[in-house]
Amino acid sequence: MTSYATSSAKAEMSELRRLKGLLPPELQSWVTVEGTTEVNPPLVRCEEIGKDQVEIQIDLVKWDSLAMDQRNLLFWHEVARIQNDTIPKDGWEMAALAIGLGGAVGELWVQDGLLLLLALALCSVSGWRLYRKNSGDKQIKELTDADDKAIALATRFGYSLANAYKSLGSALKTLIDTTPSKRQRSKYEARLSALKRSANKVKAKSRNIDDDGM
User: Fold this and answer.
1) Which of 134, 162, 189 corresponds to the end of one domain?
2) Which of 18, 54, 100, 207 is the S-S candidate for 123 at Cβ 3.0 to 4.6 Å?
3) Do 127 and 150 lie in a common domain?
4) Are 84 and 125 in contact (CB under 8 A)?
5) Which of 29, 36, 30 is nearest to 12 (CA)?
């Protein structure tokens, strides 16, 4: 048992080092790759862990069930989110909303009309910001943009365009088949649909170039 645990730990460390090597050189000094220790975590996600420091966290147990090309493209998707500056941040909105709600209740008690209006205005602004941040359309757009950039990153690391699309599409299909959450599954389905449209556009453009060349 001890030997198996040691072997498993070595394999995990080796995979983390391999993924670190898939980071573009300009990110390697401030992006780290670690295995998550949470209970039932997402497969892979990014998190700010300090000023100018981002960590890509991976559930290595689930990760191990994927083919290497699938892992690579899902990893580059997270890298692309970092490059696009779309990873979740600890915003001021929740704190402002709580302060505004608390202030509104307090001012109702003391009946100060001006302060009540200010508290309600703070609630409105922070609430709208939270709504915009968490809107489904905006999230899907950010995810599909990251997929497009992940394809570009894959070609930068030696993948052909066709293999990059194939690997990411295969990874998304696997996630759709293995994800119990309907909400999360719908995001993967939206990404796969967008990826297919993108691949078809690339194929059409390639055919046009070939026709022009002939």
Assistant:
1) 134
2) 100
3) no
4) no
5) 36
User: What are 160's strand-pairing partners?
Assistant: none
pLDDT at residue number 121 = 61
pLDDT along the chain (214 residues), means of 10: 65 94 94 90 89 91 96 98 81 43 45 55 52 64 95 96 96 96 93 96 75 45
Between the CA of residue 203 and those of 23, 145, 153, 161, 210, what are the distances in Å?
28, 19, 19, 10, 11
The confidence score (pLDDT) of residue 122 equals 53
With 0-12 / 13-18 / 19 or more C-beta atoms within 10 angstroms meaning exposed / middle / buried, residue 79 is buried
Cα–Cα distance list, 123 to 56, 95, 104, 134 (Å) = 33, 10, 9, 16
Residue 97 sits in the same domain as residue 146: no
Q: Total domain count for the chain? A: 2
Nearest to 57 by CA among 28, 16, 22, 23: 16
Q: Which residue range(s) make up the domain with 111?
A: 93-134
pTM score, two decimals?
0.76
- Residue 44 pairs in a beta bridge with 58
